[in-house]
Amino acid sequence: MKKILTKLTFTLSLASMVSFGPIFGGDANSIKIALNKLVEGNQRYVNSMTVCHEDWSAKRLAQVQGQAPFAVIITCSDSRVPPEIIFDQALGDLFVIRVAGNVVDDFAIGSIEYGVTVLGADTIVVLGHSNCGAVDGALKGLKFDNHIQEVLNAIQPAIENVKGTSGNVLEKAIKANVIHVEAKLKGSKPVLAKLLEQGKLSILGAYYDLSSGKVEFLDKQ
Ligand SMILES: [Zn+2]
Hints:
Elements: H1 2-9, H2 14-20, H3 28-46, H4 56-63, E1 71-75, H5 83-86, E2 94-98, H6 106-118, E3 123-129, H7 133-139, H8 148-159, H9 169-186, H10 192-197, E4 202-208, E5 215-217
Parallel strand pairs: 1-2, 1-3, 3-4
Antiparallel strand pairs: 4-5
The structure holds zinc ion.
Zinc ion binds at residues 76, 78, 101, 129, 132-134.
């Protein structure tokens, strides 16, 4: 409860952050609790036993003065992969960054840093998904004369090693892309790498199966 109140206290604007100072991550226990919430929420979703999408008015009112999400989710813009639904979480629980192919640029990393240092989330999940059109396009070497190409270009380096291999190459490419983005975040200075080193932050990769609804954590910590 104390942690929640602390988080709410610091759920302030960036301008306020300057005067109050940012908060930095959680600890092993809060990180474990966050992961459990995601795993259990996904199990509820898979079993059609969701509990977080009722009584919207009360939840709206409870969030008016601030937010204290416990996790940051970076995932694809794909309409079939809405984090709040597949993890069965309520308003204010997840700080979400969505871009096709779940790639990250400076805007995304800035948003992630805000979710962690200002809002107090201590768990970051990079979530890829089966049948990802963006990764598939990169794998096939599709060419566009517009901004879609920028997304494919960002995915290309991650999937070089799986091209031409046997088995489900698309799934391997999607997971390779998740691991690539995860590694980029783990090495991101000055904030994320430092918090990770201090054990105050967890960065995980995960894979969502469109058919079963299950989220597989690729490197459970
Ligand atoms: Zn996708």
